[in-house]
Amino acid sequence: MEKETIVKHKFFITDIDKVQQFIDNYREKGYKLAYVNRDSFSFIFKKCHDDFNPKVRIDYRSFKKRDDFQEYLTLFEDSGWKHLSGSFSSGIQYFEQMNEDSDDEIFSDKQSHAELYRRLFAFAITFLGLFLVYLFVFGPRYDLSLYLHPKDMFLTPGLWEMNGSRFAFAFLFELPFVILRNGFPVIWLICVILFSSCAIKVKKKELALKK
Question: Quick one: pLDDT at residue 14?
């Protein structure tokens, strides 16, 4: 028997196409997206028993004023798309078809679709710059030579001479403190790589749509 409700935890950064494909895959299995919890990176799907299973489409837009956000939602409603998830400052907005007469896509032409990727590019570049600043300003405060000798990051006396459960307990006990003391440069570097990759991908998609 198929489950009536499925909760899937997925973490996406700016790959809108991957999120869209993820949602479409469940729709093809007969499920509809019911809710998106951005705090826990979870997507709640419920079994659709109606003849009409609405498509979900995604836009990226953030607003400084709630009135502008409300006008934005009204514009989509007038076009047959109901706001499903997102806030005026969240960036990613989810919309679902209100009825079978709604268009299959929320973008009327290639230019408006390209604007989505332009906004995503601006988002990725902003966070890329932020993490680069963190890396160059705060990175030198850490002893980066320790990454060549990771055992030296652990300060528990005699740790590497311990055996069995005693070693496991001591290692796991200190590991969170090691990450707190030395992990931030690695995290920042990973974020730089991820946002660089995202910026390149969305810029290519934007340029391809503008051709």
Answer: 63
Check: CB of residue 147 under 8 Å from CB of residue 132.
no
DSSP letters spanning 95-133? EEESSTTS-S-S-SSHHHHHHHHHHHHHHHHHHHHHHHH
Q: For residue 5, list its beta bridge partners.
A: 46
Residue 108 has pLDDT above 90, yes or no: no
For residue 154, what are the CA distances in angstroms to 5, 159, 169, 181? 44, 8, 13, 10
What tokens does 200 get?
Answer: 């390149």
Return left, alpha or beta for 41; rule: phi > 0 is left, psi -120 to 50 is alpha, else beta: left
Phi-psi region of 86 (alpha: psi -120 to 50; beta: other; left: phi over 0): left
> Measured between alpha carbons, how far is 45 from 99 in angstroms, rounded to an integer?
19
Rg (CA), the chain: 23
The residues, ordered by sequence, that sit 6+ positions from 199 with a Cβ below 8 Å of its Cβ are 121, 124, 125, 128
This prediction has a pTM of 0.77
Q: What's the length of the chain?
A: 211
Amino acid at 63: F
Q: Give 11's contacts (C-beta < 8 A, 6+ positions apart).
A: 41
